[in-house]
Design goal:
The chain is globular, with a radius of gyration of 18 Å. By secondary structure, it is of the alpha/beta class. It has five helices and three strands. It has a three-stranded parallel β-sheet with strand order 1-2-3, with no helix packed on it. The longest helix has 13 residues.
Length: 167
């Protein structure tokens, strides 16, 4: 899942959040080989920002936003937060009224063996805490982290233990 901004993509830089499954053929190979160059397809829009609302509901102005995110869905959090400072974070101009300048609360759910993006989440929480009382909304106002048990399911493709030949 890409976590880079559109501005970074345009500059030829892309950071990707990849969950490495211990028994996963492709992710284990990617982690072990760490290729210097990886070709990516064009990004596909998965989240319409700003607004978070279908275009058929004009005039809806929330007082706050509650995000319920799980697993790699956590990447929606920085995407949404970057729209508060679109010039610096995204390299695009956005009208002030469309920047989602309201408090954002988040409930995150991860398996206890698969907590993703934790340093970034902690930073968003610190930004939110430092903004308290300033009249600004930065970072995350409240964050709840839920942990479920580790995955004990059998591997999906047991016949593919490892792809070591570049396939």
């Amino acid at each position: 899942t890409p976590v880079s901004t559109a501005k970074e993509w345009e500059a030829g830089h892309c950071e990707i959040l990849i969950k490495v499954y211990p028994n996963g053929a492709a992710t284990s190979w990617l982690h072990r080989v760490s290729p210097a160059r990886v070709w990516l397809s064009k990004p596909v829009q998965t989240l319409a920002m700003p607004g978070l609302m279908p275009s058929g509901q004009p005039g809806f102005n929330p007082k706050s936003v509650l995000l319920l995110l799980a697993g790699t869905g956590v990447v929606a959090l920085p995407q949404i937060l970057h729209h508060r400072d679109p010039i610096h974070k995204l390299g695009i101009g956005t009208p002030r009224a469309s920047r989602l300048p309201v408090p954002i609360d988040v409930v995150l759910s991860f398996r206890d063996d698969d907590v993703l993006y934790l340093p970034e989440i902690a930073e968003y929480c610190r930004e939110g805490e430092s903004a308290v009382g300033s009249g600004e909304n930065r970072g995350v106002r409240n964050c709840t982290l839920l942990l479920t048990a580790a995955n004990s399911d059998p591997v999906v493709f047991p016949q593919c233990s490892e792809l070591g030949d570049g396939r």
